[in-house]
Amino acid sequence: MSDKRKENTGMNIQLTDDCLYIKKPLSKLAMALLVATALPASGLGAELQQVSIAVPSPLQATSWYQRYLGCTSLEGRDNALDCGGVTLEFLVQPVLGGSQGTGLDHIAFSVPDLVGKMNELEQVGVSGTGVRLQRLDDGATFQQIPGLYLSGFIFDPWGTHIELVQDTEQQGFHHIHLSASNAAATLDWYQSRLGAEQAMHKGVEPALRFGNVWLLASDQGPVAPAATRGRAIDHLSFRVDNMQAELDTLAATGVTIASQAATPANGRSEARQAFINGPDNVLLALVENGWAGVDVNVSVRSDALDLSSNYETPQTPWGEPDLQGIYTSDAAQGIPLQRPQDIPASDVLSAVEAAARRERGTLSSIWGYEREWRDTTLEYARDAPLTQIAMIVDPPDGRLPPLTPEAAAARAANTSENEEGPSLPRGPEDLNYYVRCITQGMPNLMLPTIYNNGLQIVQSPGVVAITKEMIHETRIIHIDSEPAADIPQWLGQTRGHWEGSTLVVETNNFNGRASYQGSSPGMTLTERFTRLSPDVLQYEFTVNDPATWTQPWTAVFPFMRDDSQYELIEYACHEGNYAVSNILSGARAAEQEAAE
């Protein structure tokens, strides 16, 4: 968003450079509005029903809009909210990116105190399910739009572009802003086809109204706006009285009917829905009276694992079980290592709860990254989030066993030291191994995270190579052979053997510098890789570390095969990574400030 201005001599008002409000000399539409605003609409008289936003988790989205924008729940609809008279419905579907630059560029809410609201949201920040603010060139988060009101922009965690304005004449949901190849022609289309009411927005610019909601449009420029289907604001819905008659009328005027009227399989009522193509690549829905949205419990993917008790693992040409392929643990992302204390061990999550859990994990880790970095948020994951409560299956309570007295004392001492605050690093050797792109350690590198969950297995006679995408680590496992020498290593030393169709890998001789959950260098890690079906590779690991825990413990989760679309990408952790230099320069600056 820019605070630069240009003078429009035709109307003597201001312009912004970022398609916020691009104003033109009085068009034929504006002139008509000034002299004939009382003329009846020639369109269908459709009523704006709802704005549909694509998200991975409706539970997370409804919570966000209630918390930050004051929307309220709708009885019987757990994936929709009333936002000042307009319904926002959250759809579970693959999301290709944010709304900015599409035909539905942003939606807007009016608040009584914009300055206070932006200051409040700035304190929230982007951590967890936070708020991203869009700043002006001078760093400000809001500006006065001449002739209109104070205005600022934010983004929800899923890429929806949202304008906040301070309009004393209207509170709550305020307007929908279109990006258009020809703004005047686009507004004319909505007026003539859907019967919106013509109006002058604040007496300044041509606009339309659907009830209390303004419909504004700005010229996008020479490049046509991107399509809304699959983006954060997927479509708008309009209620009509006679579905078929109105579709016939629209078709007769050249409007493309994208899909004929039908009751969705997950519809909450028998009311039908049809889709049409609006100008500027905007997807629009028409709905009948009684439309109550879609059922989130049906919308959220709930894939069952394709398991067969009679599955026989294929063999390699040399007669070993064939585990080769590309897998991901995206479906397991979000599953905690330990069972939460408030969830009984026998319970499982619903598909909706599993989707919300995975989204919480994603947002709490790399919210600040652009959407394209977040595999699971963008729904690149082919498989639905797993409903597994926790990874630990032994002990049966799903919790880590008690620490030994020595390990408990060491952890308490470490906690006491950390309470004094972290010391400033003197050099790169004082930073942890993950920041320095050395390793995640074992078994941590095998566990799912918010991105780079790819796993590739390649075999040759007597050797299995396992490559993990994150930090591009490859483990070479020799079958039925001892290492040439005992050399402590970051990932330990491995020995492999087959138990039927299961690959068993035993690892010890760790150097102790990449501890997991406080493990000691004497830890023995036993892993088991078993194909349960053509597409499911079960991964199980047992930690036996008598110096740390009073008994061994075992965890399990699946990798899902995805040769068709997933490709392991080089994890160039050092190239372009300024974390280490920035941390050290910040430490030196802090020391200098303290000395002064």
Report the C-alpha radius of gyration, rounded. 29 Å
- Straight-line distance between termini: 38 Å
User: What is the chains' assembly state?
Assistant: single chain
Largest sheet report: 10 strands, antiparallel
What is the count of β-strands? 29
SS-derived structural category: alpha+beta
CATH top-level class of the largest domain: Alpha Beta
What fraction of residues sit in β-strands?
25-35%
Measured as a percent range, the helix fraction is: 10-25%
Q: Based on the coordinates given, report the CATH architecture of the largest domain.
A: Roll
Kindly report the name of the CATH homologous superfamily of the largest domain.
2,3-Dihydroxybiphenyl 1,2-Dioxygenase, domain 1
Topology:
Blueprint (H helix, E strand, L loop, with lengths): L5 E3 L4 E3 L12 H9 L10 E9 L2 H12 L2 E3 L2 E7 L2 E7 L11 E7 L3 H11 L7 E3 L8 E2 L5 E6 L5 E6 L5 E9 L2 H12 L2 E5 L3 E6 L2 E7 L13 E7 L3 H10 L4 E6 L10 E5 L5 E5 L8 H4 L25 E4 L22 H16 L25 E3 L10 H14 L35 E7 L2 E6 L4 E6 L14 E7 L2 E7 L15 E10 L2 E9 L8 E9 L17 H17 L1
Parallel strand pairs: 3-6, 7-11, 12-15, 16-19
Antiparallel strand pairs: 1-2, 3-16, 4-5, 5-6, 7-12, 8-10, 9-10, 10-11, 13-14, 14-15, 17-18, 18-19, 20-22, 20-29, 21-29, 22-23, 23-24, 25-26, 26-27, 27-28, 28-29
